[in-house]
Write a structure and sequence with these properties.
Layout: H1 2-20, H2 26-40, H3 53-58, H4 61-74, E1 78-88, E2 92-101, E3 107-116, E4 119-128, H5 133-139
Antiparallel strand pairs: 1-2, 2-3, 3-4
Amino acid sequence: MKKIVLMLTMVFMLAFSAVCSASNGKVLDAEETIINKFLSATKYTAITSMMTEDMKKDFNEETFNNFREQLDKNFGKLNEKQLFLVEKGKDVDVLRYQSSFALVPEAQFVFMFKVENEKPLLAKFALALPPKEGAAEEQK
């Protein structure tokens, strides 16, 4: 009897540890892969297959090159990014990352994905800076 209880306890512990170490899910993993490719891309053609048609219209090659130039000039190298919020909608997912750059210690990336048949496509993105301390005090 003790062996059976010990065996069942071990099985439940293994099952629990497997659940805890599981990946984020197929769609979220795909979204994170797209974000990593988007942030490391140096050529516009490398990211066009990951974007919705509406985003391709708004975010063309010239806009991409300008974005990369401004990001490198004003923010520097991306040191760290940490996913801190996932918002799930019917056909839309929003991922927020806390980021740290060489020149800017704190910023947030926001990525919006359109999801169809568990295939995410980047629909929009934004980079936000925290409000300045002086501006926050003036609003009070």
